[in-house]
Amino acid sequence: MKKFDLKQSIPFLVLAAVAVSAIFVPSATTFGGEGYVAADIAWIIVATALVFLMTPGLAFFYGGMVNRKNVISTMIKSVVATGVTTVLWVTVGFSLSFGDSIGGIIGDPTTFLFFKDVSSGAPWSLAPTIPLTLFATYQLMFAIITPGLVVGAVAERIRFTSYILFIALFGIFVYFPLAHWTWHPEGFLFTMGVFDFAGGTVVHISAGCAALAGALVLKRRKVHLEKKEIPPANIPYVLIGTGLLWFGWFGFNAGSALGANGLAVSAFAATNAAAASAGLSWMFFDVVRGKKPSVLGFCIGAVVGLVAITPGAGFIEIPQSIFIGFVAAIISNLAVSLRSNTSLDDTLDVFPCHGVGGIVGMLLTGIFATKTVNPAGPNGWFYGDPGFFLTQLTGVVIVVAYSFIVSYVIFKVINMLQPLRVSNEDEEMGLDESQHNEKYIQGTLLVTENGVITEKSVRLLDKDFQEE
Q1: How far apart (Å, rounded) are the C-alpha atoms in residues 84 and 184?
Q2: Who has greater pLDDT, 361 or 29?
Q3: pTM to 2 decimals?
Q4: How is the chain split into domains, by residue range?
Q5: Each residue of 431-443: pLDDT tens digit?
Q6: N or C, which end of the chain is more exposed by having fewer CB within 10 Å?
Q7: Which CATH superfamily is domain 36-421 in?
Q8: Distance from C-alpha of 185 to C-alpha of 175, rounded to nearest angstrom
């Protein structure tokens, strides 16, 4: 048995302390049904489950694109955010995001400490027809997937324990403040007039800028320095991941209407139109540039379209959503090409796709938003209000600067506390084996039986071949 290592045991000890503290949280009465709408509750429960599904979808999406030696390590980094963020959200995250505002900057951490008064409290002011517990759980799903998006930029070289610490620090210092600024009625971006329907700033720009910071701090992989072309491990995984993300995104955007209403239907349709247009745009633009239409191209383009429509899904007409997907895919495609000609090693192009896609979506919301879709929303530049575009632009600049600077500091601090990057030997071996002592590869094995070469499906699990 290994000797007790205090440093390695800190995550477990912190979780144990939280779990024991939770015992002493006083029980609360179950929420009543006064003022609630059953249809709204049913829809937001479904939407919450849909958004949760996006996290394993993201794991498949990223896992299929990395080197085969790093599939498992990449997938678990997306999924493990479910555990870390949930515990953090229940303890202080929901309070920091939606608690009593402290100067429009952050929520009072004691407001809903350990979900105090969430079950028995009044509903959220902007979601009066559903219980506060449901609203809190729905918002949790957004908080879970955001650090998971960063994985794609730092894949194949970040130490697993360092990434766990990043999830916690990113939530406390980046995600929770941005959620408060943008979605709390007293948040300073909210009061400034910045509109972000479902997370263009809070989720995608923040994750994209954190990804850029992480790629810069971690520096380049060995294969990137040697300019080796590593084929994707499993393109069918990418297709599965795209389908799950697209499906889950309906809950992401349409659920942000916070009710079973016409606005949810409009956001649902706009989301689908933007994704479809962007997938085709990316694929056909590749053809224009002399490439062949690819599965990866359509999948990446569709996700970019989903990103771009997110901030404006509840403010933009369905026809304009096609234009937004079309334009966003081209801009992100060019950003990927630009990145590939630099020394930046953003493994799966998270910043060009999520960061740039979120920026494009926020700015185009400033152009195409219309009160026809949402009377509580703004009119964009295209509908006579250039001032709203400038407000969106200001909000984007603030969020980009804050997300990048704070995330860069977080990565630097983690690197001072413990190595952020795996050793050269571990990188060469692959993170599946070096970080998790696990290995899973599916493929074919050529074997000789009685002098005849035959092809058999095999599975490699923990170094043992087993015929299927």
Answers
A1: 23
A2: 361
A3: 0.92
A4: 36-421, 438-468
A5: 999 999 887 555 4
A6: N
A7: Ammonium transporter AmtB like domains (1.10.3430.10)
A8: 17
